Amino acid sequence: MVGRKQPPTSTPGMRAQRLVINASHVAVTHTYLALAAFGLALFLGCALHYKRIVKNGVAGYPDEWFPSVSATIGDWYPERNIFQILIALTSGPRFALVYLQYFIRRSPSTPWPGFLFAVGIIRTLMCGGWVYITSNDDHDVHDILMITYILCNVPWMWGGVLCTPIGHVKARRQRRYLATGFFVSIIPMMYFFVQHKIYRIPGAYTRYSFFEWSLILLDVLFDSITELDFKTSNLQIALSVSSDAKVGRDDISSSEPSQGSDSVTETKLEGSAASSETEQTASHVSGTVPRTFFQKTQAALTLSLDARAAVGFISDVYLSYLFWSIFTSLITTLFYFSVWQLALSGSELSLLCLLSPAFLGIRPLRTWALTRSGRATLKAVAILTGLGSYALNSPMRRLFVVNFANMVLLIGQTADWSAGKDGYQGLLLGLGLVLLSLAKHANHSTNPVWPMLNEQSGGYNKTGLFLALCALYEFATRPSAVPEEEKEISGSKDKSKVVSRGWLAGSIALGSMIFTLHCFFIDPSTIIAWSWTGYKNSQPKGPLPHLHGSLTLIAQAIGLATPTILPAYWLSSPLWFSYGCASAFVMHCFRDWTGFIGGLNLAVFVMSLLPTIIQQSAQPTKAGRTYFAAFFVTILFYLADVWTVAYAFVPGGAYLRERSDLVLIAQFVATSLVFEWPSRKRMVTNTIVHMPSSASFLARHLLTLFSLSAVLVTIYRWNPVGPRPYKAGTGIINAGIWTVHFGIDNVGHDSQRLIRDIIRDMELDVVGLLETDLHRTVYGNRDLTRVALQDLGYYVDLGPGPNMHTWGAALLSKFPIVHSQHHLLPSPHGELAPAIEAVLDVYGTEVTVVVSHNGQEQDPLDRELQSKELARIMAKSYPHPVIFLGYVVTKPHASRRVWLLCLFFILVLMNPAAAPYEILVQDGIVHDIDPQDWDRWCEYILYRGLYRTAYARISRGIVTDTELQIGQYVVPRHGFQLVNQTLEDRMLRAWKEDLPEDHWFPMEYYGNEDEGGMNGHFYHVFNTPLYYNLPEGAQV
Fold first, then answer.
1. pTM value?
2. What is the pLDDT of residues 291-346, one digit of tens each?
3. Which residues pair with 1017 in a beta bridge?
4. What number of other Cβ atoms are within 10 A of residue 278's Cβ?
5. Cα–Cα distance measured from residue 998 to residue 814, given in angstroms and rounded to the nearest whole number
6. Which residue out of 805, 819, 822, 853 is catalytically annotated?
7. Quick check: is 518 catalytic?
8. In DSSP terms, which residues pair with 927 in a beta bridge?
């Protein structure tokens, strides 16, 4: 029985005994048992098995000198057994703490304490799971339970802070400090885990262990604060034993003693806990306005945070995510046609559908679009058609449907923006963008609901449609009561106003903001690609996309949370604008970690402006012209962004050639229009963007959840085993070159998984991929190497980034990359040609691999200069081994000069530009993989200092417009340099049966266009791989 403390009563003939326990003793008991369990395990482990528990897969004592939690509690007897016994004893007080906290927090006005009670139970069960199922028992289950436990700590800790009774100031303050310390400690802990697991640095795991133990300590101390709550509330547990069954039945009416029982046990919770509870209820009922910050927070929580409001907010966030998904899918869908024609194809006119908000200038349409039925209809039509377009196999039909979806979507979305009275719409837009970034981070840098994806290419379109139906249903049936926030705004007009600058300034700033978000922040690895420069001393010189992309997402979350914490006038000051300009300058001008840090700060800056810009662009009576102008500016930025790199294929390209700096400056000039400059006449003394308190509260917690999820996704995607060659110990290396056409297959779908499959089947140790710079709006800001890297395990060099204005080149290697350098080959007339020069540690021998994408035949001078530079790069490493994997555009054995026959049959020198083949082979001191293969034009494989044993050409299938070429080599014995190979030694043709099976390519790929092969790929040209014997006396 639960109740307040009452005077003791006596009944004649009743023999009763009472035992009263202060509830604070339960908290103390839990704290001491938990600390004893971990402390005793650590003491015994260090005393009995010290060197064993500090040893890990990278190093041991003395490099590692402090044990991790898992090694301490889960590996050795007797510490493991003693620990588990003490944790079992802790479980009773722990469950009691969960219930007792619910008792002092419960309120009929809010379900939040009940939610925390459920979370507390789940959290306790998860704790028991990872304690008793150690990593040695089942590593995956242990990790899943541990991750779930950490996720449960998010609502448990921050919810516990806000639900602390109003009078318990000390308890709330300590909870806030400990919760902050807990989540902040996760960041360095993950950093040192990366240093240990990925870079295998001795001593890193010891530093990781310190932060791991700190999480344990902070977690236990956080729960120990309940002692303060119980003491302040004078909470007591009374146990009464009576032989009078009648008394027992009267006091505990919900239970009766079993027949034959002569005693009943009564449990009471007594004390003044109900007094604070009564005060809270009275405050809500009487409408008393809270005065302190925490009273305001708790009042807003109690008034607004019911279950339906929370579900409604989550639905709005998901609908915002779908807005970004459909909006960003338009330009990737239309660019399929531009890619195939390498010129303006006419599909670019689809961008004009972004101007559909102009229809809001029609007053009846605008009025209808602002009604509940109008908003629901527009959202439903746009989202269901946009998401459902993935089912269309025709790229043209898919484009038409996506065009229609965007037209309808933008009418509805901009109508919502125009009616916004506070920063809620901007907050939603930012949350949707962060969720999109998280979805791409979790799905190999592709959005799982994009029309360019289906089930085979990594899409979760049906799941997205189902969730969309749920969100649309919730939106359509949502109660239409006026929110408290709107009342608060209307009641505070005399205190604050929003400055109106006219519709044009807000439109220009909004158009620039939409492009900036799309260009840099729909994928967390885009700003990493901007700063990437390669490897040095076997370590990456900057952040890696698959490991450090979560930092970008965290920066976005911090930026979006900023306007919910700081006064809005701070974020519209020239000082804040200067911070943004400095961040952009650092990102654009610096590389590696410095440039990436600049990008992180730019993310904070840009995201912090979203609520301000959305609110200042809201012009209900001028919505048509406002949003027409905004998206017209966005279209101009899209075109300018493409012009900086596609200048050779578009009219007027020379004016913006390689001038992304001008585009970035224009973005900031446009954004500056919403800032408070001293020269501008101020209309009011203060500029305020109102943020609803309940929405701010939920937004901060969602952003925290998104950030933690990004970190957990990174951990989940880590391959515990580093890259290993497919045929380790044989000295064999398979190297391939493939132009993958920007990761878009012949039917307009993402091709990453098709590329992965053939790389896996061919067991390629080194792969050069060309046309891979996809961190642009037109390609969806994708990382083409992510699937192969995470599913197959490779070291990756992304090549020159999007700020280098090339079509891109990437290198995947199963062997460690010792050093790599990016080159921009001379291109005075045509497109910039990228190249990667990488030194690989191949079975202990350093092999230089060069990957390049030369210019087209329309620019002969470019081809000559580029070939000479590539030859210089290869020649400088002579006589060390070299593998060249390139897109060259030349005929085999083409002479150094090209002579043409004139009209009058007189030989004259026409266009005296050198052909690349002879320059590369002779000046680069390399050999053609097979000089007798005359049927080549684009792709070439050259080599030096290795024994070539096989050569294969595989048809393109539906992946791209270019074949895959593969060369197989054997590395000479370590220390032996292979030079002066004769043509006879290199051309010892053989049947595959003459070589060990390790040298054979897969038999499944024999076939033709009508039968055989795999997924549309087959050996073509020769209809079989070509094999070669090793020369007599080969040093292997």
1. 0.75
2. 454 454 444 444 344 567 888 899 999 999 999 999 999 999 998 888 776 666 67
3. 1014
4. 12
5. 17
6. 853
7. no
8. 943
